């Protein structure tokens, strides 16, 4: 049932996934559902809704990713990082969150789904010092754009950018982003069967 739903949502969104990737996505939903009570992972309780609100909402970002190395800041249970890692096995994803129990959940997912391209990290983002800058800094339901840029300015490589997944855009928030950053592109995302507006902001340092 869930597998058929996923297949039709992927077709609607024009996203290609192998049978194995589809199985991994469904298994991820199963683990989110199984461990949600114990780990308090998401307010979305039903697997059918998780498919739309978490899996598809993450996957629609995939066609817009540029580069090989990404960090998902404030990833919680691995959103959008884990669905994107499943769909893009050639890209690497650091999944960072300050809450240990969410990182423990991600490690369990990593083992059960045999994901070799994710690295769960428990840290506050402000304190995290990577050896190398990232091509992309992903965020979803993390912080205001201004706070996110202030806390994460040290993370992208010189050519890297921020990929901020947002709901309804707040004009005041957009107008007030720090002066040394510029919104390069504002993309409207279409998530099958989701009524709410979704946007992806691509932001670059203008220094
Ligand atoms: C609302 S949740 C969003 C989780 C996920 N990105 C999603 O879309 O479902 C925000 C997450 O950010 C984490 N977080 C908040 N401040 C943080 C910080 N300074 N450094 C790292 N993680 C942080 C929280 O622990 C929480 O898991």
TrEMBL record:
User: Which EC main class describes this enzyme?
Assistant: transferase
Keyword check for Cell wall biogenesis/degradation: no
Q: Cite the Gene3D superfamilies for this sequence.
A: Vaccinia Virus protein VP39 (3.40.50.150)
Cellular compartment(s): Cytoplasm
What are the GO BP annotations of this UniProt entry?
Answer: methylation
Q: Which residues bind S-adenosyl-L-methionine?
A: 74, 79, 125-126, 140
Recorded protein name is Ribosomal RNA small subunit methyltransferase G
According to its UniProt entry, this protein's organism is Shewanella electrica
Q: What is the lineage of its organism?
A: Bacteria, Pseudomonadati, Pseudomonadota, Gammaproteobacteria, Alteromonadales
């Amino acid at each position: 049932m869930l597998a058929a739903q996923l297949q039709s949502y992927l077709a609607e969104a024009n996203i290609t996934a192998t049978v194995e990737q589809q199985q991994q996505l469904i298994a991820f939903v199963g683990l989110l559902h199984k461990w949600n009570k114990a780990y308090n992972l998401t307010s979305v309780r039903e697997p059918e809704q998780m498919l739309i609100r978490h899996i598809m909402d993450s996957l629609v970002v995939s066609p817009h990713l540029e580069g090989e190395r990404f960090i998902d800041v404030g990833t919680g249970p691995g959103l959008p990082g884990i669905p994107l890692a499943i769909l893009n096995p050639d890209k690497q994803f650091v999944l960072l969150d300050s809450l240990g129990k969410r990182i423990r959940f991600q490690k369990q997912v990593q083992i059960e789904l045999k994901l070799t391209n994710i690295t769960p990290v428990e840290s506050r983002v402000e304190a995290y010092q990577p050896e190398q800058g990232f091509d992309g800094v992903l965020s979803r339901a993390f912080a205001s754009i201004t706070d996110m840029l202030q806390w994460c300015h040290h993370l992208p490589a010189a050519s890297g950018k921020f990929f901020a997944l947002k709901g309804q855009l707040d004009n005041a928030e957009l107008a007030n982003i720090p002066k040394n950053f510029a919104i390069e592109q504002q993309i409207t995302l279409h998530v099958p069967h989701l009524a709410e507006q979704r946007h992806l902001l691509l932001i670059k340092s203008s220094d």
